[in-house]
Amino acid sequence: MSRRTLLRSIAVGGAALAAPSALTACSTGSSGGGNVSNAGKKAVPWPAYAPAEGPKPDLAPSTAGVQAGYTRYPGELVTSVAEKPGDGKQKIRVMTITYGTPPKPVGRNEYWQAVNEALGVEVEFTVVPDADFRAKMSTLMSGDDLPDMINFGGGYVLPRESQFVKSRCEDLSDHLSGDAVKDYPNLANIPTYAWEGMGRIAGRIHGLPIERAKVQGAMFINREAFDRAGYRPGMSATDFRAMAKEASRGRKSALGASTVGFYGYLYHAMWHGAPNQWRIENGKATDMYGTDAFKAALEYMAALRKDGSYNADATSVSQVDLKTQFYNGSVRSMTDGWGAVISNAQGIKDEFTLDVAEPYAVDGTTPVYQQNRGCFGYTVIKKASKERVRLMLRVLNWLASPFGSKEYELMHYGVEGTHFTYDKSGDPVATETGLIDSRTNLPFPYLMDAPQPLYFPGFPDLTKRLHAWEEKVVPLLVRDDHWGLMSDTYNRQGATMQQIIEDGVTAVVSGRKNLSAWDAVHRKWRAQGGERAAEEFLKEYEAAH
Q1: pLDDT tens, 363-422?
Q2: 3-class DSSP state of 47
Q3: How far is residue 447's CA from residue 147's CA, in Å, rounded to a whole number?
Q4: Which of 81, 459, 509, 524 is least surrounded by CB atoms within 10 angstroms?
Q5: What is d(CA 211, CA 234) in angstroms, rounded to the nearest whole number?
Q6: 225: part of which helix (H) or strand (E)?
Q7: Cα(102)–Cα(314) distance, integer angstroms
Q8: Is 181 helix (H, G, I), strand (E, B) or coil?
Q9: pTM (2 decimals)?
């Protein structure tokens, strides 16, 4: 999973639902795209990393993963792309997930119009609500009418995803591998860990990762409400439970969860010491779900739910509606993706201090924190002529323009005077129009984006808080060893496997089943592909190491 279910709610802000039936029409024949394993294949080199020059940060980054922090906006912006990617005559169709509301049509959407004008391309943009993403992708992948570019985002496990990409989408290796990427300088600015997190398919590069910070997501908190209830960073799990119960008095809920968050179980599991989904070492692949630490986390979450600390509609409310409850103070916290920081800060409108929780301490356990895959997802290009593919790559190169450039400003903040204004500190601050016609509701950054800085216009103190938090949490990061590895079983059965876990977690934490039922859930998961996937991940890992 590693998902933006974390990102989504556990993270990110939205995420998934009922698994569709396995796809069989990704290409002719039931074999789909054939063997997608990297084992035994000659792997093409990753794109040569060439970091872009940018403004000097106010808060220093670290090689371990602490992001560069900016408390103010650059005084002078540079032009990153000298020529428009298109000539004004081309049209392209793109599709991404969305966690926002439907965008206004292009004829009434000045943000959309401005980006189209800057690209020199008419972009027909289809956005798919998070809750509909799996079903929509199932229909799309089994049909013949594909958009020119598709983003596989949100952390979902889609049936036969890699086979579909291999058979229906462009092999980009000759365009991007090694020094070839230098034709697209902003794509060369994507760090290698993001490409590694995306992974190769049969030794080749078939997509482009949308970089994300190594921190997966966070439990965002209403700091004043938590403090009144007795919150202390790094407090014991026992004290955290008592604090959550205290913060839930008066028809409030300390812990917000949604239909895609599944009670934030990935956070609690790792804070109890579980692996980051898959740990591969000493010739063995271990999944988090069968560990004692995971069961202890389930027991703990069930106790929190029984205390009344979770919102009562945790199994029925959408992530979007949960955000509204968090903003108005009905719930005191929610798990969400790191990329949602600024939208959350804007949604709160200074009603309280937005902060992030540090892991609580479990006796006898060293808490760990989930390291991100390194990317929100990846974008693929439908098979096309070489010139058509180059047009797509030029568009993506423009969208990847770095922080401190005019292109970055347009894509992230819109048109000055319409979507944002500069405040007295020189920061771009969204207007009411900018909160509607924006990258949230028309998510160009989900097609491609620059490496993310810690910068939140109008919220310099938030930058400082989160940078300090990263300095504490980054040393706790543990990677998920299966990212970038291929497993035919996981590609075929991953959605079903994930549904088994999510349904089981929901049943146990909500009280519909006892903790003792989890062993049967895990056995079913292993029988439905978990055991075989572990063998295949191990084989791939050993071939790569």
Answers
A1: 999 888 989 888 989 999 999 999 999 999 999 999 999 999 999 999 999 999 999 999
A2: strand
A3: 12
A4: 524
A5: 29
A6: helix 223-228
A7: 24
A8: helix
A9: 0.80
